[in-house]
Structure formats: structure tokens, C-alpha cells
Specification:
By secondary structure, the protein is mainly beta. It has a single domain, classed as Quinoprotein alcohol dehydrogenase-like superfamily (Methanol Dehydrogenase, Chain A), CATH 2.140.10. It is built from two helices and 33 strands. It is globular.
Length: about 425
């Protein structure tokens, strides 16, 4: 067991790692969207001065670029836009110019991937410094030069750790912390694994069991930076420096579908939620020296749960949680809800809103529905207020991305960039 001095020094070391991760080695501005669900993996953009409403034609289209099949989201750093897609031969990482949508480079990182729940790559690229990290549908983790797409290294994560890809495909978006890139491995030898960013060599491994379909997040709880990994069996917190388990909480769902990211609502509380009629739990996380204590302070479960986030990570604003609540076992009914955190009361609900993804920017919820609509909803707790809806693309399951007054969306056909700056 660590002494208090050792623990203090260790906490300082990983606090530095947290700062480095959040600044992304100093190469990313505040208006960048460098990884899955933005800079902090919470679906919140720092952009301001954005449109508050738009008509049935949608915001102004700046450009459209044909791509291909895949469920990968979009990352934006400076004037570069990244995603993954596939054609009939390969899975590709592609870099586009943010001004005109022209393809700067594309690099094949694996053969085409087919799955009964949808073909193509699932994970979103993560950009750190001059490197882009990606994970393919079968679990090939690859590092590429951000400038020209040159492949630096690759490793088949499940295979290297004696396992197989997840049933519905590997969907974990890589998380870069310091000198490690961390993913959900989903094998008996390692539920979570970290690889050296420079060489791709295994740095550490932790836990055991299936991956689930969430992505790890880096948060500071009770003064200690930690990686929160929501795998098939529940939520596990590990030390990003060496993978030491700090604490865990069991949360088993049907079909191993823990898909939404955990949400830290403050420095002592974490919310986890899953669909399949499962529900949500709010955890209080505290420590006394080196001892961690985790307490369930609110549970809303079953068919009457207030929040069953199927794959969409809820967003937080001014003490209120906005999320998509899926009713039934992978059923068609999805409600948009606003929950007040102080007393965990649902203050409004838009029933049958539809399966969607959401992010938050400048007081507005920006949603893309599976039917290909772009929707704007005021992020206010007093009432549901839709301020724009337009059919802009084909069927999609990707969340939008916002950077520097531009909103990016994609489907299985193309990527579209909108001007969402307020006139």
C-alpha cells in the first residue's frame, strides 16, 4: 500500500498528466474538437456567438464531401477535419480541409469491416500533438502522422491480448493521456489497455472481461485524476500512469451494452446510464487517504427509469442534465429529457423525440436524428423549446461536432459542414 507521501507525489504526477491531456500538448485551441465528444469528452463545445434558430432548409451549407460507410464521429483541429469510413475494400482514416472540404489525405488502416449491427468503423479519431490515433471495427489501433497520414505503428488490440473483437464491433475511441493511448481491450487478459504513443508497445493492462461499447474518459474526482472505463461489467476507475485500479462499481446490462460515456457532474459525483430498459445510477466518489469509497446515491432503473441512455452521452449545463431516454429493449421510443441534478427530478420530457445524438454549444442542444435531421433545442430547464429542424442527410448514428463556428455532420454517404455563426 502506498504511503501518504507516495500517494501525494503520485497524485501530483497524474495531475500533470491530466493538464497535458486537456491541453492536448498545447497544439489545440479552445475552439477545437479533437476527439470523441469534444476536448473533454463531455459533448460540450466552448464556441459562442452561434445561431439560436434556423428554418426548414437548415443552416447555410459551406461544403459537402462524399465519403462512405461508417459510424465514426468527427474530430477537428485547426483547419483539419478527421473521420473514418470504408469502401468495398478497406477502412480509411481521412483528413479534410475545414475551409472547403477537400480531401488532404486518406490512409487505409484495415480491411473492410462487416457486422450485423452496421458496417464500417465505429470509433472516432483522437488527435494529440502531431499524431492521429484510430481504432478500426475489428480493433486495430493505429497511429498516423497528422500532417500527411503516414502510418507510424499499429497493433490489433484484442488479438494481441488473446481475445476477440466485441460482438457488435470495437467502438472505443482512443484516449491519450501523457505518453499513453488508452482503449477498452475487452479480453480475459485485459479489459483496459494502454499503449505507448511513440511505439505502440503495451504500457499496462487492467481488469478482465468484455469491452462494452463506451469510451474511456479522463476526470478528476476527489482531487485525483483518473480514467473512468465503463465496460460491459460496470464502471472501473484506474490510475492513468500504471493502470492500478482505484475503485469500481458493478453495472451489468443485457447484451453487454454499456455504451454511453460516464458523466462527472462535479468532482465527487459520476452518472452512468444504459438502455435496454436498464436505467441510471449516480455515484458519490470520495477518498480517505489511499482508500476509496463509492456510494450509490440515486438509482432510477427499469421500465419507469427517468434516463436510459442507449448510446448517447447526456450533457450538463447549469445543474441540469439533458439526455436521450430509450424506452424498451432497443425499442423505437426515445424521449428527450431534462433532469435537475439537485433533486434528480425530471423537469421536462419531450416524448417520442426519436433516436438521436446530441451535443451542447452556446446554450443550444444540437441533435442529429437517425432519420438524418439536424435539430436545435434550447438548453433551458423551464420548458422544451425546439428552435430548428431540417432534413440534411441520410440515416446517421454519428454525433455532430462544432468547431470555430462550423458544425460538421456525416452519414454513410458524405460529410457536410454548416456555418452556424450568428449573423
Amino acid at each position: 500500500m502506498r504511503t501518504r507521501l507516495e500517494f501525494s507525489l503520485h497524485s501530483l504526477m497524474i495531475s500533470v498528466a491530466l493538464s497535458a491531456a486537456l491541453s492536448w500538448n498545447g497544439s489545440v485551441r479552445g475552439d477545437d474538437w479533437p476527439q470523441f465528444l469534444g476536448a473533454n469528452r463531455d459533448g460540450v463545445s466552448g464556441d459562442t456567438g452561434l445561431l439560436k434558430k434556423f428554418g426548414p432548409k437548415g443552416p447555410k451549407v459551406l461544403w459537402q464531401t462524399d465519403l462512405g460507410v461508417g459510424m465514426s464521429g468527427i474530430s477537428v483541429v485547426g483547419n483539419q477535419v478527421f473521420t473514418l469510413y470504408q469502401d468495398e475494400e478497406s477502412q480509411y482514416v481521412v483528413c479534410l480541409n475545414a475551409d472547403d472540404g477537400k480531401i488532404a489525405w486518406k490512409t487505409a488502416v484495415g480491411p473492410m469491416y462487416e457486422n450485423g449491427m452496421g458496417n464500417g468503423p465505429r470509433a472516432t479519431p483522437s488527435v494529440s500533438g502531431e499524431t492521429v490515433f484510430v481504432l478500426t471495427g475489428e480493433g486495430i489501433l493505429a497511429a498516423l502522422k497528422r500532417e500527411d497520414g503516414t502510418r507510424l505503428w499499429e497493433v490489433n488490440v484484442p488479438k494481441s491480448l488473446g481475445g476477440e473483437p466485441s460482438e457488435y464491433g470495437m467502438s472505443c475511441s482512443p484516449l491519450v493521456v501523457g505518453k499513453s493511448v488508452i482503449v477498452h481491450a475487452g479480453t480475459e487478459k485485459a479489459a483496459i489497455a494502454a499503449f505507448d504513443v511513440a511505439s505502440g508497445k503495451l504500457s499496462w493492462k487492467a481488469g478482465s472481461g468484455k469491452a462494452g461499447y463506451s469510451s474511456p474518459v479522463l476526470k478528476e474526482l476527489s482531487g485525483v485524476p483518473q480514467v473512468l472505463a465503463f465496460t460491459a461489467s460496470g464502471l472501473t476507475s484506474v490510475d492513468p500512469a500504471d493502470g492500478t485500479e482505484l475503485w469500481s462499481f458493478p453495472f451489468v446490462t443485457d447484451y453487454d451494452c454499456n455504451t454511453a460515456n460516464p458523466v462527472a457532474t462535479d468532482d465527487q459525483h459520476v452518472l452512468i446510464s444504459a438502455g435496454e430498459n436498464h436505467g441510471a445510477v449516480m455515484l458519490n466518489v470520495s477518498r480517505n487517504g489511499a482508500k476509496w469509497m463509492v456510494k450509490d446515491v440515486w438509482t432510477s432503473s427499469g421500465k419507469d427509469s427517468q434516463l436510459r441512455a442507449e448510446w448517447q452521452t447526456p450533457v450538463l449545463l447549469d445543474g441540469h442534465l439533458y439526455g436521450l431516454d430509450n424506452s424498451g429493449s432497443a425499442g423505437p421510443i426515445t424521449n428527450l429529457v431534462c433532469i435537475r441534478l439537485s433533486d434528480r427530478k425530471t423537469v421536462w420530457q419531450k416524448t417520442r423525440f426519436g433516436k438521436s445524438n446530441l451535443i451542447l454549444a452556446d446554450g443550444t442542444l444540437w441533435l442529429t436524428t437517425m432519420e438524418g435531421e439536424l435539430v436545435a433545442v434550447a438548453a433551458k430547464p423551464d420548458a422544451f423549446a425546439e428552435t430548428g429542424r431540417a432534413k440534411v442527410m441520410e440515416t446517421t448514428r454519428q454525433a455532430p461536432a462544432i468547431s470555430n463556428g462550423r458544425l460538421f455532420v456525416r452519414d454513410d454517404v458524405r460529410m457536410i459542414c454548416f456555418d452556424v455563426k450568428s449573423p
